[in-house]
Amino acid sequence: MASHSLSNAFPTVSVQHSPWHTVSAAQVTEFLQSDRATGLSSQQVAERLERYGPNELIETKGRSPLDIFMDQFKNIMLIMLIAVAVISAILDIREALALDQFIFPKDATAILVIVLLNGILGYVQESGAEKALAALKNLASSKVRVIRSGKTLDIDSKELVPGDLMLLEAGVKIPADGRILEAANLQVREAALTGESHAVNKEVEVQLPDNAPLGDRLNFVFSGTEVVQGRATVLVTETGMQTELGKIATALQEVEAEPTPLQKRMTQLGNVLVTGSLILVAIVVIGGTLYDRSLFTELVEVSLSMAVAVVPEGLPAVITVTLALGTQRMVRRNALIRKLQAVETLGSVTTICSDKTGTLTQNKMVVQAIGTAKHALRVTGEGYAPVGEFECRGQKIIANQEADLQKLLLACVLCNDAVLQKEQGQWAILGDPTEGALLAVAGKAGIRKAEQEQQFPRVAEFPFSSERKRMSVMVKHSSNGSAPYIMFTKGSPELTLERCTQIQMGSHVKPLTDAQRSHILKQNNQLASRGLRVLGFASKSLNELPLERSEDESENGLTWLGLVGMLDAPRPEVREAVAKCRSAGIRPIMITGDHQLTAQAIAENLGIVKPGDMVLTGQQLEELVDRELEAAVEDVSVYARVSPEHKLRIVRALQQRGHVVAMTGDGVNDAPALKQSDIGVAMGITGTDVSKEASDMVLLDDNFATIVSAVEEGRVVYTNIRRFIKYILGSNIGEVLTIAAAPLLGLGGVPLSPLQILWMNLVTDGLPALALAVEPGRPSLMKQPPKNPQESIFARGLGTYMIRIGVILAVVTIALMMWAYGYTEQVQGNGLDRDRWQTMVFTTLCLAQMGHAFAIRSSNQLMLQVNPFSNPFVLAAVGVTSLLQILLVYVEPLRNFFNTHYLSSTELLICVGFSSLIFVWIELEKLVINGFAALQHHAASSRK
Where are the transmembrane segments (predicted)? Predict the structure, then answer.
């Protein structure tokens, strides 16, 4: 992370090159030429405001709506369609002039309408307003209290400048970065910025290294965070874009959205189709002209039809609807998709980078271990529910039969400011999660706070202090006449133990020996090594309240009660989700702002890493250059104490190694990494507005398992996209080859007009393709590795399938076309239309696709083996499309518009017969492929 250099702020002042947090408060004041008593003068404020500008985030200019709309027409397939529409219109005008009558340019108009609709569709997908920076701005406080020229003023936060004295108190949003000069019990919630799940206790004078991560800068406060408790005087060091929040805004605006795997594949598909089409057009036009120059005009018309045929006009709409249907299914599984393209990208994810708190864990502190003089106890139960048991070496312990455990749990309840209550059937806390966990564990022994406070009312207290790292309360104990008061103390185990001279042994109090001290410290280290947050508890009987004595003097001669170790426990369903990731070839990675031991313990518990696996901290990561980090990311699955820049670097390093990365986050600090990742996943419950606006997907339940469910849906969507691309493009190849063959075979006229081709591509292909888009996923889908994000759209046999089926469709249709052409030549004298052969070709191609839609539902199962009602939409789409095609032949207004001709029942049956050959061919292919696979399996079994 780039540290704040003193010389960067005021280069005119001769200073050492040290970050703000590494020097004393007095030095910072001197460097900033401020006064700790009176603050800045009005002249200094004016000069610095002019020099540094207002304390606000500055937005860079993005693409305008017009730019976004115009970019839609840079697609190579749409460019080709526009060219076709222009040439078609020119030919219509030429014909109209020759006949001296108006001819409506149906083909050109229809093509331009399709082009415009595709452009609008693309614009709607891309034109979502960028609101992440606006959400960042909302974190800034509008007003702040400062000292200027010796006077206390409330000013607009935009007017803050380096050197200002800010006065902070509980509930205030901090509007700028600053060095703490004075503090009283100051606690700041920095989770949105650092990822740290607990409020941070701030200190004035503390020695910190240059590379201390944000979460460890205890003498510093940051813009966008919130004061939870206490008060402070803070000297502003950075404002606006120079704050840590400003750095995040800069990083957010510098991140450029990468095209998704689907977008890359669609670009590749367009290039291949257009290039192939132009080559084929050139062959037909040049070859035909060399054969007979009088055919040039006819060949141009053929070329226009070929160009329209090769472009799958309905494909963008089908893909958009498919992705939209995928988003609806995902919402039912608690995943809200904000950007349609993210649905397919999920299916290609190879790595999921997850935050710990609230995603992998419950975001609820749970007591898991208790250590008393007699027992080392394991505590069962989940969340804040006061339901669970106490166990020692597998044996159940009854809490009310153990006097020392009873007194320890009593201390947990009375030395506590939180409230545990049941809301709508769920246990929840009001107050600090750590104190809530203490109430829950006491509740497991039947000790309730409300009851105990009636028996032991609080009469005085020493609040928690970051210097003492302890909290003490004094309660009245009316049943004990000789010592009517008891003081209960909780805090750092080491510092609390230093104050103890006795130890609770069952129902007796005995002197604390050196051996017992060593045992307690060893026990504390063991619990901490498991990633538990450990608190020490002590008590002291009092004859009178220590009104005249200091806290340090009063908190002496304590009786040690025991240790309580707690953890933000893993979500129970996450372990299974991690295992599912592993079987699907997806690597889960934990990236957190929490401490290394905590992160490692949770990761091992969930199966993300094994004991002994490497954990990389933010400080270690800082020392790695990008090339070294790119090598490290292949082996490291846990990152602890990381900063916003680190998260961004990790995501980029993974992407450089070819991974498709899903990144979860809930805080402001996560926004740049969310935007950089292929799939940014924000938390719906605990997530900030900034993280949600920067994300592609929002988890409505903040659960890691939901991401895995979304990945499964993404794989289903991608499989179905490949299925209907095979379906649509196989048809288009058949159309192109059929059209190209007509002039080469000497048939008069073009077999298909551009308008008829548009009908096939949009309706005959489009409706069944939409039905194929909701084909249910196969059970084995999440037992396969993710598909290579760099793979071609034609990979894994899709390209050869399209060409093969396209050629077969063309052969069948050309055979029908030659027969129909000869047949209509013979019967035209009977008053029948000579051009009916073109309608027969049109009808055969359309009906052939219906059989194709049935057969392509499965790549290896015969249709007799597939339940036809597992996807009833295919049945409906085939029925509706077939009916519409029949209407084009037998309803006169439609016949006139689409230039079709009436077919006799015999001619229609012949079309149906030829078209059914495609279904038969695909089913025979499956038989051959399955038979060959069975032979290979049998041969392999025989060799074993």
Answer: 73-91, 103-124, 272-291, 303-325, 724-745, 757-777, 798-820, 840-857, 869-890, 902-922
